[in-house]
Design goal:
Strand order of the largest sheet: 4-3-5-6-11-10
Distance between the termini: 14 Å
Shape: globular
Order of helices and strands: HHEHEHHEHEHEHEHEHHEHEHEEHHH
Length: 376
């Protein structure tokens, strides 16, 4: 457990927090882009360790949360077909569409199955030639290589009964959109370490320069987060805007070259809708024409499906860092993990779920030497 415990060390965390408090002279707003980082921040009470001048806001880095409502409805339409076995990771099964979720239609007889890898879906296609197997391919650059591999394997094996419903999104264009918004108040970013493991971080250099915003590639444990914040604050206080790599034990500048080559073979960049945000240009992947036979959206002609978000749900504002989940009038009452209105309350990486589960940590208790959370 060495390489986990050392990044949850309370003494190391307190030392970093103390240094942040020492050097801060101005108010700064920093966004962590990843939902996994959001959960670490809430679970370990990291905000309680920071000076009042530091404001952390939570970005759209939860893949389940940003999958648009219309894509969920497309999945439901395909999954309801009697000739289809619809497969997905477990966190997508409870995400609400306009009227149902995948678990609900499974209860009514649809063949919906949770898998642990898209290659499991490829195996189902080879063992169930009388059924069409569809895999719900969502997520950021992190999960895209495995889905590209599944398509490549299905193509190599000449499987005609396998396809993916593709809803992949890309982080750098989302950062560009956030920083370009008129209401933007973000001054620095903690970039998602697992995304950069695949892609590297060279795409962040022009963004940092364009918006004069420090960007620090950061891991997911408490010490990672605090060190990433410290690196960002040092830049802000010095008037610098650079891309730095806190997560050097995992991330290299160019990322995973074979994975990037596979992505370039199977996918091409396209405009993509983000739930609660809207369409962001060049912010997603779609299958190249050479692999259109594996495109479930085309096979089942569901491209026309369009839906509207529930009026009471403010997931879009939460995902853009414009407000905290607790600002939603439905939070904790009409919207809970058991009965969610929006995806951020469903996903294990969703900001709303994080606030619901760890809401007992009061942000007003700043500057306390709180080490209790690190013991669990």
């Amino acid at each position: 457990m060495k390489y986990l415990d050392e990044f949850r060390d309370a003494a190391a965390a307190q030392k970093l927090a103390k240094e942040i408090r020492r050097i801060v002279t101005k108010p700064w707003t920093i966004m962590e882009i990843c939902g996994g980082q959001t959960h670490t921040i809430l679970k370990y009470g990291i905000e309680t360790m920071l000076p009042p001048a530091i404001t952390l806001v939570h970005g759209p880095g939860c893949p389940v949360c940003v999958t648009p409502l219309e894509m969920i409805d497309k999945a439901l339409a395909i999954a309801a077909r009697p000739d289809v076995i619809f497969t997905s990771f477990g966190d997508m099964l409870r995400v609400p569409g306009s009227r149902d979720d995948l678990l609900s239609i499974k209860a009514r007889g649809a063949d919906v199955r949770m898998v642990y890898s898209p290659l499991d879906a490829v195996h189902l296609a080879s063992t169930h030639p009388d059924k069409h197997i569809v895999f719900f391919a969502v997520g950021f650059e992190t999960t895209a290589p495995a889905n590209a591999m599944a398509v490549s394997e299905a193509s190599h094996r000449k499987l005609k009964n396998f396809s993916i419903l593709c809803s992949h999104v890309l982080v750098p264009p989302a950062i560009n959109a956030l920083l370009s918004a008129p209401e933007n108040h973000i001054q620095a970013f903690l970039a998602a370490g697992h995304v950069c493991t695949v892609t590297g971080y060279e795409d962040y250099f022009p963004l940092s320069k364009k918006f004069h915003a420090p960007m620090v590639v950061t891991g997911f444990e408490p010490v990672d987060i605090l060190q990433g914040i410290l690196m960002a604050v040092k830049q802000l206080e010095a008037g610098r805007c650079e891309v730095e790599n806190q997560y050097r034990r995992v991330v290299s500048p160019k990322g995973n070259i074979p994975a990037r080559q596979l992505l370039a073979t199977i996918f091409e960049v396209t405009d993509r809708a983000w739930r609660g945000i809207g369409v962001i240009p060049d912010s997603g992947y779609r299958l190249k024409d050479a692999f259109s036979a594996f495109d479930a959206e085309k096979i089942y002609d569901v491209g026309h499906i369009a839906t509207n978000e529930p009026g009471v749900c403010i997931a879009g504002k939460v995902l853009q860092g414009l407000c905290k989940p607790t600002a939603c009038p439905a939070f904790g009452s009409d919207c809970t993990p058991e009965h969610p209105l929006g995806a951020p309350m469903v996903s294990s990486e969703g900001a709303c779920a994080a606030y619901f589960h760890y809401g007992k940590i009061e942000i007003s208790h700043r500057n306390t030497e709180n080490t209790e959370a690190f013991k669990h």
